[in-house]
Amino acid sequence: MARGVDADTVEEYLDKIDEPFAGALRTVRDRIAEIVPESEQVIKYRVPIFRVRGKDLVGLSATAKECSLLLMSPPAASALRGELAEGSITGATLHFAPDAPLSSATLRTIVDYRLGELA
User: Fold this and answer.
1) Which domain of life is it from (predicted)?
2) Confidence (pTM)
3) Residues 6+ apart with CB under 8 A from 7
4) How many CB atoms neighbour CB 13 within 10 A?
5) Cα four-point dihedral sign 1, 45, 37, 92
6) Which of 13, 83, 87, 111 gets the highest tally of CB atoms within 10 A of its CB?
7) Residue 59: inside a domain, yes or no?
8) Residue 52 sits in which domain range?
9) Is the Cβ–Cβ distance between 72 and 59 less than 8 Å?
10) 3-class SS at 92?
11) How far apart are the C-alpha atoms of 27 and 53, rounded to whole Å?
12) How confident is the model at residue 1 (pLDDT cuts 50, 70, 90)?
């Protein structure tokens, strides 16, 4: 499964990917939406992206083996590497297993960091 999917909406993207990946990404999406209710969810780069005040915050994707939270910032990835209790960071992407969606606490840490960068 490729990272990008031909979809016009986030829901369409999630409907086109296989379980358990879609379920895990839905859980993470819902948690991010709770943390940042003012965010906008769009498809960009063929993946779901959360935007705040017109700026990309984080994105979601899935591969054949794992789910990913796209941090959209190499400096954020460097700063958060070793600080998060879940997942593993490669480049500017946090990878996690589909049977272990990222917790609200981990997502809040990431979102707070990224919001600080975007401010």
Assistant:
1) Bacteria
2) 0.93
3) 13, 15, 16, 43, 46
4) 24
5) positive
6) 13
7) yes
8) 10-118
9) yes
10) coil
11) 23
12) very low
Q: How far, in Å, CA of 112 to CA of 45, rounded?
A: 23
Reading the block at residue 93, the tokens are 């992407």
Q: How many residues does the chain have?
A: 119
Work out how many domains the chain is built from and give that number.
Answer: 1
Asked, for residue 5, whether it belongs to a domain, the answer is: no
Which residues partner with 82 through β-bridges? none
pLDDT 10s digits, 34-93: 999 999 999 998 999 999 999 999 999 998 899 999 999 999 999 999 999 999 999 999
Residue with tokens 């969606």: 101
Give the pLDDT confidence of 16-34 residue by residue, as tens digits: 999 999 999 999 999 999 9
- Read out DSSP for 30-59? HHHHHH-TT-EEEEETTEEEEEETTEEEEE
